[in-house]
Hints:
The protein is of the alpha/beta class. 28% of the residues lie in helices and 24% in strands. It contains 7 helices and 7 strands; from the N terminus they run ααβαβαβαβαβαββ.
Amino acid sequence: MSAAANDQQQRWDKKYADAKPVTSAAACEVLRSNLHLLPAKGTALDLACGLGGNALLLAEQGLTVTACDISPAGLRTLAQTAKSHNLPLTTRQRDIEQDGLGEEQFDVICVSRYLHRPLCPAILAALKPGGLLFYQTFCEEKPATVGPNSPDFVLRTNELLTLFAGLRLRYYQECGPLGNPAAGNRSEALFIGQRQTRKKRV
Length: 202
Ligand SMILES: C[S@@+](CC[C@H](N)C(=O)[O-])C[C@H]1O[C@@H](n2cnc3c(N)ncnc32)[C@H](O)[C@@H]1O
């Protein structure tokens, strides 16, 4: 593992060491609000899962879930929560920025509050044909007190649409500061895209 990855791991391990376990209620909004788009069965990946709210919700929906993260502390807590709720899921400690994701592995991939732009082509490739990507993370119009402020970790206007232009758009929201800023999600962009299905040969 690189020195930078090691720093990341230690930083998140420390944070998760004191954290209370979460439940599926902690899943990101784009997933919670669009459960009706999920397939009835199949494989799902919660990428950079942290304490795994998305993974728990996907497992509750009957999907076969893998949750991966660089932090063993977060994954340990998630594994205990899943066991106590009788939800089967697999946890994997991975440096996803180095290790790759494999090709056409998942019917659903969910990413929340994590951004590493060079990984986007690998995320696309890891979706099976017809697979769905749920992505939600911080965007530049957010209040400075919410989330990270480094441009490396914050989306530019409409950027998820560009990063995942290869997917068929199923849902997009980026409210910015319009109207009543006390209502709605002002900090994050929400995206759902679908990988093209293979054309049937005749
Ligand atoms: C802001 S947290 C988001 C966690 C979760 N997705 C959520 O929405 O609550 C970012 C997560 O990315 C993970 N992470 C950072 N760099 C990583 C890497 N190179 N490989 C795997 N996970 C990484 C961290 O351990 C952390 O759990």
